[in-house]
Write a structure and sequence with these properties.
The chain is of the alpha/beta class. 38% of the residues lie in helices and 20% in strands. Catalyzes the methylthiolation of N6-(dimethylallyl)adenosine (i(6)A), leading to the formation of 2-methylthio-N6-(dimethylallyl)adenosine (ms(2)i(6)A) at position 37 in tRNAs that read codons beginning with uridine.
Length: 470
């Protein structure tokens, strides 16, 4: 991919800042501050994108609300990974007909991965005529220009062209809170797993320049953020399009040189691009958490080939064994799909066997959901959903037993945790995270919110730890 075409020029991004000021002037002419609502579905990359959308809206003079009836602008940032998420979005879009009827000047925007799919954009065009603006992830950087067209042309605007994708630096951002931050290090995907829609809606892999990432993380560390998560559809493939060539481990080494009391996390990773060099870098770093989310998806080699996952069970185990060798305290999580088209019960139990062998700390588990436009959606899938549910239940019961047993090992230990939230449970009014990302419900002073504290673990269950501040 030609980097000159990927990196947007300062003139192109600067033009969007001019549109923000034009819209700000329109808002000021109306004599009141407009309210915007941004609703996010899906992954952390969507969360990061929404923070940029909020940044642009604030630059346009908007403040924010969670009340759709009060909002002048509503943005639904959508996910296309699961059918359930799409149904939720269409349910929300249907409900917005009532807010639009009360306030005909309300502007409703649909964006994100779901909006990029041609059949979804056409469905919105014909059946959800109250939606004013539809744009995909590749067009997010020009949101101010698209919104200005909605304001001035008084017509519906669609920007869902099939594009390989770009990188826009310097977009404004509104970060929620002052404890955790998301930093996108790359965009797009080249893997084309047979079940996944992401490469079709987010374009090809393109990496941000290392100096831009380092500068952003340095600024966040200087501002006192305690956890910074590096994002990409496959962070392990970072740098393949850069000249001179840098890989993800090189980036981590540079970031680890920064001063500050903060942890670096990253997601998501592809086993085909994971390396011993990466694990050595993690083990030697001051800032990088000993936490690894490495999606295996299946423990059956035949199913992995059908998924177009270019590794096998033996290679995955080799990676895990090495990572645990250099990081004995590693917290390991993964993704698994049960019921892939053509999968048999015996093959599903191979996956359960892998889970028993590896002993993940936690899993994100899914029953296969066909995504229109992907090869897997066209595969013969004779096994009924009820049968897949039985396999899924066996998988979940197996993992729950493992998680409960691994969590019980923390009891009696004192761990350095980031206290990051309040709960509705009077017994455990605060929550935090261990360095390995394990959830802790705890007792302590609210003044510790946003800070690291030593927590003595007093109890545990399948999903969480419980403790008190030392």
């Amino acid at each position: 991919m030609d980097r000159k075409q990927v990196i947007l020029s300062p003139e192109e991004t600067g033009r969007q800042r001019e549109y923000e000021q034009k819209i700000r002037a329109l808002h000021q002419g109306r004599g009141r501050t407009p309210l915007a609502l941004v609703d996010t579905f899906g992954c952390q990359q969507n969360v990061a994108d929404s923070q940029h959308i909020m940044g642009m809206l604030r630059a346009m003079g908007c403040e924010f609300t969670r009340d759709a009836d009060r909002a002048d602008i509503i943005v639904l940032n959508t996910c296309a990974i699961r059918d359930h998420a799409e149904k939720r979005v269409f349910g929300n879009l249907g409900a917005l007909t009532h807010t639009k009827k009360k306030n005909p000047d309300q502007i409703i925007c649909l964006c994100g991965c779901m909006a990029q799919r041609p059949e979804i954009a056409e469905k919105v065009r014909t059946s959800y005529r109250h939606v004013d603006l539809v744009f995909g992830p590749q067009a997010m950087w020009k949101f101010p220009e698209l919104l200005y067209r909605v304001y001035t042309r008084r017509g519906r605007v669609f920007s869902v062209e099939d594009e390989s994708g770009t990188i826009a630096e310097g977009m404004p951002i509104v970060r929620e809170g002052h404890t955790r931050a998301w930093v996108s290090i790359m965009y797009g995907c080249n893997n084309f797993c047979s079940y996944c829609i992401v490469p079709y809606v987010r374009g090809r892999e393109r990496s941000r320049d290392m100096d831009k990432i380092v500068a952003e993380v340095r600024e966040l560390a200087d501002q006192g953020f305690k956890e910074i998560t590096l994002l990409g559809q496959n962070v392990n493939s970072y740098g393949k399009d850069l000249e001179p060539r840098h890989d993800f481990a090189d980036l981590l080494r540079e970031l680890d040189k920064l001063d500050g009391d903060f942890l670096l996390r990253f997601m998501s990773s592809q086993p085909k691009d994971a390396s011993f060099k990466l694990f050595d870098t993690m083990a030697q770093s001051r800032h990088v958490a000993h936490q690894l989310h490495l999606p295996v998806q299946s423990g059956c080699d035949r199913v992995l080939r059908a998924m177009n996952r270019p590794y096998d069970r033996a290679r995955y185990l080799e990676l895990i064994n090495y990572a645990r060798k250099v990081m004995p305290d590693l917290v390991l999580t993964s993704d698994i799909i049960i019921g892939f088209p053509g999968e048999t019960e015996a093959e599903a139990m191979e996956t359960v066997g892998l889970v028993r062998q590896v002993e993940f700390d936690a899993l994100f588990t899914f029953i296969f959901s066909p995504r229109p436009g992907t090869p897997a959606a066209k595969m013969d899938d004779p096994v009924p959903r009820a049968e897949k549910q039985k396999w899924f239940d066996t998988l979940c019961a197996t993992q729950n037993d493992i998680s409960a047993r691994l969590h019980a090992r923390y009891v009696g230990k004192t761990l350095r945790c980031l206290v990051d939230g309040e709960t509705d449970d009077a017994r455990w009014p605060l929550s935090g995270r261990t360095a390995g990302g394990r959830l802790v419900h705890l007792v302590g002073d609210k003044s510790a919110l946003g800070q690291y504290r030593d927590i003595k673990i007093t109890d545990s269950n399948t999903w969480a730890l419980f403790g008190e501040m030392v």
